[in-house]
């Protein structure tokens, strides 16, 4: 099963809507500071490819926020940042409210919440598009080498990968979002996309 | 087994977290014990209500959004306290004015197709407390850092810290910015070695300071200057601290000061040289004046002429004394004074000094006495001439400022705690005294207590200043006790080396049972006699007058006196006559004391009575001895006079005077010719050499500074010429130059002795006697007395 150009465009559009909503939510908790999230790149790839891709941009040391989702298709949603950038992200979000030394202490929880907001927004946008519901669990934070963080049993999983650019107060950070689908879930996703396209064209 | 839902309900009630379950309409369906306890609201008041209804205070919007998403979309969420510190308005567990910090996890779930959500509330206040504390500490630290950087920016030196290796700059202050012409951001990361051309090497755990003239700065802003660079390295920190300051201006000032000091020193040296030269120049003509007035005095003169001649001589001598003072002072000022340390007898030394000032005192009708507080015959090592100069000064001063009474000297040797011997001298007078407030100025040069007294009392005002400097140079101290109209007591002490401190053997005189009476109207004189007699273990009866003797009770005095000292001035003879009429004074020996100034008027000197002896005051210890032995030697009481050479005695003696100044030639040759010497004149060293080659001389008087060939060179040549000969002509230097070191120079050149111009007749004869006497004795077979 392949992701067609149309599918990809649709997904990109949908997820951009999602991260747009996420950016609004983040701006709100960051005390009104304007945050812009964009998804410039989207593709389907294998776990190994994902690892390489992330590694190329962010290096070996990774922070990830992962949450499980269930619905017409299920799997895990992940937001990944290099450790340095995740700290930078939290620091930018918290602004001058808290001294840098203390940010380290609450970095984990803060990052968890940021990831949760972004991922929930993306999933909500997807769910809205397919007219169904995607339930999520509470997020989980992992820190370490890329292989440990991904901790995927089967390397042959298909992964929907998005590169996400985070822009705030003239700072620009690059993160990654990955949706790891359970067996057949990619097929289900594409079927959903196909249905949606059809419904649009039929009207 | 109980049913599971009931068990789970109990477990959930007792959880250590807050647990709330909301239904689709966000109404509370479960509210556990922890929630009831933390909010103070029991479950029954909450069930069926929304959170907004339960709490009076508003719920965080972020929580409400998340709850909405949970029940409508099934999305779970976490709320971190970083962004939402207190999602629910719960009170802090210990500080009720504060809100409890909570972490809330929202889990969406479905049961029987209905959406629910579970709120899991965790109290993170304690963790937050720690954060608050950390925050406070961080703030304190920041404030401190700000303060420190403010201080560092305020100092006038560039302060930098660098790594230990490579001296890479880590921090820099404002001054460093302007010094190196770079902003702090550019300074940080730069190697200090590239900013300053010359750096000191740091040393572990030490501070190294370098002052160097070097280039510093960067590129166009490069400057050069004198830098003071301090680098400090500490064990604890892996960092070096540098303090750098441009001290070019300071160095310039320092250089200016050094030059100014050098100029001042040069000026001072020039002043000293000028004074020395001036005194030299003045002494030469003064020599002429004094010499000629001596000669004039010896010619036939009428009374008026004699008076004028005497005035010329006195004026000349006063001028000489003043010049000597100034010369001495300039020598002391330029540290050109040398001390000649020899051993000398304290008693002889003191009596010599007393002898010098005695005429002066007696002329004014003043008493002069002394007290020796040490064994007779004690000898010490020191510079007797310089100490004498000091004592002479103090005595002259005392006499000068005393019109009634007298002057008394006390001399003792103290052994200090450090076992050094100190010569302690005290000069007491009954003069006008000195007010306390003026005593400090007294030892300053050119100061006399009353400006007008310079005219009244004469002198340069240098005497005390010279004395003080001399004493200080000898390592001693000088001081003064005085009050206006109550006389003065000057004292000084000088460290000396004590040589012999035991009683010398006395002549075997039995003094036991010897009764001595002193009749004296002068307290100083009486004290002096008492001290003298005490040296012989004699306790004298001291009475002020004949009346006091008569008033004394019978039995209180001895029946007979073997020895009586009479010190009743002009009444001496009268008292003597009265006493001799009394039976108890029949075999008594009388010693009549008198002042030098009265000597000429005393006509009774030659009484012929062996039991009556006249002596001069103050009584010398050497005079006392023969008095006690009973050998009456009136000669002993006469002041010693320099031998006046008789013409016949020296007719054979041929003296060569080498002198370029014609006045001096005349003066010296007249003096010598009158005394019967045969005199030849050479106007310089070269002439002298040729004369010596032609004929023999018995003595050479050699001027030192002469044109063509000076005295030093001439002497060396003469000694060279007669090296093989058995004859060694005595050569006596005769020079107006009186600076220290001249004597050594003369002796080094081969001269035998040294006389300072202006030449005094007596000193010249004494010197010639000294060098010719042994020669004559050799020639005459040992008979020197005619």
Q: Architecture of the largest domain in chain B in CATH?
A: 2-Layer Sandwich
**Biggest interface found:** A-B, 32 and 28 residues
- State the secondary-structure class of chain B: alpha/beta
Going by CATH, what is the homologous superfamily of chain A? CheC-like
Main pleated-sheet profile of chain A = 7 strands, antiparallel
- Overall pLDDT score of chain A: 82
The major β-sheet of chain B equals: 7 strands, mixed
Shape of chain A, please?
globular
What helical percentage do the residues of chain A reach? 40-55%
Low-confidence stretches of chain B: 451-457, 598-606, 631-651, 776-786
Counting copies of identical and different chains, the oligomeric state is heterodimer
Tell me the CATH topology of the largest domain in chain B.
Heat Shock Protein 90
The CATH superfamily label of the largest domain in chain B reads: Histidine kinase-like ATPase, C-terminal domain
Keywords (chain A): Chemotaxis, Hydrolase
Protein name (chain A): Chemotaxis protein CheC
Organism (chain A): Acanthopleuribacter pedis
GO molecular function (chain A): hydrolase activity
How would you characterize this protein structure?
The complex is a heterodimer of chains A (203) and B (786). Chain A has 203 residues and is an alpha+beta fold. Chain A has one domain (5-202): CheC-like (Chemotaxis protein chec, 3-Layer(aba) Sandwich), CATH 3.40.1550. Chain A has six helices and seven strands; from the N terminus they run αβαββααββαββα. In chain A, strand 6 and strand 7 form a beta hairpin. With 786 residues, chain B is of the alpha/beta class. Helices cover 39% and strands 22% of the residues of chain B. In chain B, the strands form five sheets. In chain B, strands 11, 12, 13, 14, 15, 16 and 17 form a seven-stranded mixed sheet that branches. A five-stranded antiparallel sheet of chain B has the order 2-1-5-4-3. In chain B, helix 9 (248-298) runs antiparallel to helix 10 and helix 12 packs antiparallel against helix 14 (463-473). Residues 451-457, 598-606, 631-651 and 776-786 of chain B have low confidence and may be disordered. Chain A binds chain B through residues 25, 28-30, 67, 90, 93-94, 98-99, 101-103, 105-106, 109-110, 112-113, 116-117, 120, 123-124, 127, 133-139, and chain B through 61-62, 65, 69, 73-84, 103, 105-108, 110, 127, 131, 134-135, 138-139.
């Amino acid at each position: 099963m392949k992701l067609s150009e149309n599918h990809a465009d649709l997904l990109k559009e949908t997820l951009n809507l999602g991260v747009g909503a996420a950016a609004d939510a983040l701006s709100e908790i960051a005390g009104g500071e304007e945050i812009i999230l964009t998804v410039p790149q989207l593709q389907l790839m294998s776990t190994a490819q994902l690892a390489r891709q992330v590694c190329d941009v962010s290096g070996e040391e990774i922070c990830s926020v992962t949450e499980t989702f269930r619905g017409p298709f299920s799997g895990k949603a992940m937001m990944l940042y290099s450790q340095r950038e995740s700290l930078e992200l939290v620091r930018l979000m918290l602004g001058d409210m808290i001294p840098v030394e203390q940010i380290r202490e609450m970095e984990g929880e803060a990052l968890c919440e940021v990831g949760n907001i972004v991922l929930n927004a993306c999933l909500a946008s997807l769910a809205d598009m397919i007219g169904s519901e995607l339930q999520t669990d509470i997020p989980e934070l992992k820190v370490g080498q890329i292989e440990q963080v991904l901790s995927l049993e089967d390397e042959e999983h298909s992964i929907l990968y998005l590169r996400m650019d985070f822009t705030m107060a003239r700072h620009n950070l690059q993160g990654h979002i990955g949706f790891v689908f359970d067996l057949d879930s990619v097929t289900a996703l594409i079927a959903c996309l196909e249905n949606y396209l059809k419904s649009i064209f039929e009207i | 087994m109980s049913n599971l839902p009931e068990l789970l309900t109990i477990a959930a009630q007792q959880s250590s977290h807050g647990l709330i379950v909301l239904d689709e309409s966000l109404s509370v369906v479960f509210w556990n014990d922890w929630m009831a306890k933390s909010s103070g609201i029991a479950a029954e008041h909450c069930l069926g209500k929304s959170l907004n209804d339960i709490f009076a205070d508003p719920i965080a919007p972020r929580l409400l959004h998340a709850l909405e998403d949970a029940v409508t979309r099934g999305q779970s969420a976490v709320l971190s306290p970083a962004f939402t510190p207190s999602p629910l308005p719960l009170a802090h567990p210990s500080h009720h004015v504060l809100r409890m910090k909570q972490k809330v996890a929202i889990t969406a779930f479905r049961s029987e197709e209905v959406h629910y959500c579970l709120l899991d509330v965790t109290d993170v206040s304690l963790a937050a407390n720690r954060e608050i504390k950390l925050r406070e500490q961080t703030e304190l630290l920041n404030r401190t850092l700000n303060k420190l950087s403010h201080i560092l920016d305020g100092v006038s030196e560039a302060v930098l810290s660098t790594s230990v290796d490579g001296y890479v700059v880590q921090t820099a202050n404002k001054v460093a910015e302007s010094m190196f012409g770079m902003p702090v951001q550019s300074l940080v990361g730069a190697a200090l070695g590239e900013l300053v051309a010359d750096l000191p090497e740091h040393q572990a755990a030490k501070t190294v300071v370098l002052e160097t003239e070097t280039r510093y700065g960067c590129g166009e802003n490069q400057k050069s200057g004198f830098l003071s660079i301090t680098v400090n390295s500490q064990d604890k920190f892996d960092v070096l601290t540098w303090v750098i300051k441009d001290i070019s201006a300071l160095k310039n000032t320092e250089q200016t000061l050094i030059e100014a000091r050098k100029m001042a020193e040069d000026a001072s040296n020039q002043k000293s040289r000028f004074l020395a030269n001036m005194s030299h120049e003045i002494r030469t003509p003064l020599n002429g004046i004094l010499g000629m007035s001596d000669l004039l005095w010896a010619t036939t003169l009428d009374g008026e002429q004699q008076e004028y001649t005497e005035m010329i001589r006195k004026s000349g001598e006063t001028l000489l004394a003043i010049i000597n003072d100034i010369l001495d002072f300039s020598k002391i000022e330029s540290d050109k004074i040398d001390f000649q340390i020899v051993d000398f007898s304290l008693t002889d030394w003191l009596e010599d000094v007393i002898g010098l000032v005695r005429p002066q005192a007696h002329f004014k009708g003043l008493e002069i006495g002394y007290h020796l507080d040490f064994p007779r015959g004690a000898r010490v090592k020191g510079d007797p001439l310089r100490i004498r100069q000091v004592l002479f000064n103090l005595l002259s001063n005392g006499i000068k400022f005393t019109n009634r009474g007298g002057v008394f000297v006390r001399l003792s040797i103290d052994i200090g705690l450090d076992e050094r011997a100190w010569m302690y001298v005290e000069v007491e007078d009954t003069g006008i005294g000195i007010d306390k407030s003026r005593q400090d100025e007294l030892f300053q040069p050119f100061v006399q207590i009353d400006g007008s007294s310079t005219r009244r009392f004469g002198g340069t005002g240098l005497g005390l200043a010279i004395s003080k400097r001399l004493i200080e140079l000898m390592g001693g101290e000088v001081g003064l006790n005085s009050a206006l109209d109550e006389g003065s007591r000057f004292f000084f002490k000088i460290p000396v080396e004590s040589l012999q401190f035991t009683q010398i053997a006395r002549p075997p005189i039995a003094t036991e049972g010897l009764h001595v009476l002193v009749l004296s109207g002068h307290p100083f004189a009486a004290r002096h006699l008492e001290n003298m007699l005490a040296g012989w273990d004699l306790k004298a009866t001291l009475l002020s007058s004949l009346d006091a003797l008569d008033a004394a009770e019978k039995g209180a005095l001895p029946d007979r006196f073997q020895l009586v000292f009479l010190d009743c001035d002009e009444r001496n003879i009268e008292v003597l006559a009265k006493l001799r009429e009394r039976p108890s004074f029949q075999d008594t020996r009388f010693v009549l004391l008198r002042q030098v100034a009265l000597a000429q008027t005393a006509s009774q000197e030659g009484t012929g009575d062996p039991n009556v002896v006249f002596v001069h005051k103050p009584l010398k210890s050497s005079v006392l001895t023969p008095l006690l032995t009973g050998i009456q030697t009136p000669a002993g009481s006469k002041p010693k006079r320099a031998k006046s050479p008789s013409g016949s005695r020296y007719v054979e003696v041929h003296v060569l005077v080498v002198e370029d100044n014609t006045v001096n030639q005349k003066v010296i040759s007249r003096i010598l010719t009158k005394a019967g010497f045969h005199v030849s004149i050479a106007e310089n060293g070269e002439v002298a050499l040729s004369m010596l080659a032609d004929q023999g001389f018995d003595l050479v008087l050699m001027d030192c500074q002469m044109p063509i060939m000076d005295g030093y060179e001439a002497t060396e040549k003469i000694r060279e010429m007669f090296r093989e000969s058995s004859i060694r002509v005595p050569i006596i230097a005769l020079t107006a130059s009186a600076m220290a070191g001249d004597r050594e120079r003369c002796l080094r050149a081969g001269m035998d002795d040294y006389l300072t111009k202006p030449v005094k007749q007596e000193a010249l004869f004494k010197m010639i006697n000294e060098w010719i006497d042994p020669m004559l004795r050799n020639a005459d077979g040992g008979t020197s007395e005619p």
